[in-house]
Amino acid sequence: MSTGYGTVTLDFLYNWLRVYMMTDRLALVQYSANDLRRAGFVAVDDEGAPLDAPDDLFLAIPEHQLDLSDGKRERFEKECRAVGAFWLPCAGG
Fold first, then answer.
1. How many angstroms separate the CA atoms of 18 and 25, rounded?
2. Distance CA 8, CA 84 (A)
3. What is the top-level taxon of the source organism (predicted)?
4. pLDDT (tens digit, 0 to 9) for every residue of the chain, 93 residues total?
5. How far apart are CA 40 and CA 26, in angstroms?
6. In Å, how far are 1, 6, 9, 58, 61 from 89, measured between CA atoms?
7. Contacts of 30 by beta carbon, 8 Å cutoff, 6+ apart
């Protein structure tokens, strides 16, 4: 099944996140812009306009897979802002 993500994107994610990973594997969750909208979030482009393509894909990484102890959370949050990543609250959480 195609994910819409190339090897370069997945390699970047792995290389960036490996210092935070609790194991040598990382499970990713894929959402579309419509999935996010149904959960109450609106995906926007660089100008702040809602995305035209409701099927644009977003990757989510469940936080429980990451080691954010001992000051790593602050560094991780700073890196997330730098690459345009964002926190997505858990449903019902």
1. 9
2. 17
3. Bacteria
4. 345 667 888 888 888 889 899 988 888 888 888 888 888 887 777 788 877 676 778 888 888 899 999 999 999 999 988 887 877 766 544
5. 26
6. 27, 26, 23, 15, 12
7. 3, 57, 58, 59, 60
What token pair was written down for 19? 């210092």
- Kindly write down the DSSP assignment for every residue of 16-65, as one continuous string: HHTTTBSSS----EEEEHHHHHHTT---B-TTSPBPS-TT-EEEE--GGG
- Please report, as a single letter, which amino acid is at residue 72: K
How far apart, in whole angstroms, are the C-alpha atoms of residue 33 and residue 51? 8
CA atoms of 66 and 76, how far apart (whole Å): 10
- Are 66 and 76 in contact by the 8 Å Cβ rule? The answer is yes
CA distances (Å), origin 69, targets 65, 74, 76: 12, 9, 10
